[in-house]
Specification:
heterodimer, B: mainly beta, four-stranded antiparallel beta sheet, 12 strands, globular
């Protein structure tokens, strides 16, 4: 399995709980992105890392959402005090490089389906 | 801001028919990339193609072909002799150079159903 790996595949939790979603990118991929996909919609950008640096978090809906990638590989998206409206598919993608000079294709993981009761 | 519009919400065809999925994009940037992704019923997102804004040559890959026309800001996708396995949701996406670091702006997707 050399693809992007996300865990858990499914997460059901009660409103108000914190959740942490994990993404393990393709080995050697510098760039990592998080997206959220509502049912019947295309993915929407949340945040982006280049190595361990979070370069863009403009898509995070509010301050309950945060992400980190401390060693430039695995990333965690954390949602605090979850609300029902947070229910969605959360997708991680990685690419070899990114940025101003090369928009390499992003390869997506299978996603984490998050359901808030 | 960038925008991608896939006006066809759902398309239904019979096997062996040709089908074209439309994609219209908006951006003020002169350098950008366009993508198509496939999301089969199993749910994963599969990369199909990337084109940059300076390359308007059409591309063919087996039964798949893409028509990029800057004059109409369109990047349409045609499947020739469709098969049941082509049934999926297809997304068109756009990324621009510069400060957006390659983040993708997706269209809403087109659900393609190919009947045997």
């Amino acid at each position: 399995g050399a693809g992007v790996s996300q865990s858990p595949r499914y997460k059901v939790t009660k409103r108000g709980q914190d959740v942490a979603l994990r993404c393990d990118p393709i080995s050697g991929h510098v760039s990592l992105y998080w997206y959220r996909q509502a049912l019947g919609q295309g993915p929407e950008f949340l945040t982006y890392f280049n190595y361990e640096a979070q370069q863009d978090k403009s898509g995070l809906p509010n301050d309950r959402f945060s992400a980190e990638r401390p060693e430039g590989s695995i990333s965690t998206l954390t949602i605090q005090r979850t609300e029902q409206r947070d229910s969605a598919m959360y997708r991680c993608a990685s690419s070899l490089t990114s940025g101003s000079y090369s928009n390499q294709p992003q390869h997506f993981g299978d996603g984490t389906r998050l359901s808030i009761l | 801001a960038q925008k991608v519009t896939q006006a066809q919400t759902e398309i239904s065809v019979v096997e062996k028919e040709d089908v074209t999925l439309d994609c219209v994009y908006e951006t003020r940037d002169t350098t950008y990339y366009l993508f198509w992704y496939k999301q089969p019923p199993s749910g994963e997102l599969v990369f199909l193609i990337r084109r940059n804004s300076f390359d308007e040559q059409n591309e063919i890959s087996g039964r798949y072909s893409w028509n990029f026309q800057k004059s109409t800001s369109s990047f349409n996708f045609t499947i020739t002799a469709s098969q049941v396995v082509d049934s999926a949701v297809y997304f068109c996406a756009l990324s621009v150079m510069g400060t957006s670091y390659g983040k993708l702006t997706f269209g809403q997707g087109t659900i393609l159903t190919v009947h045997p």
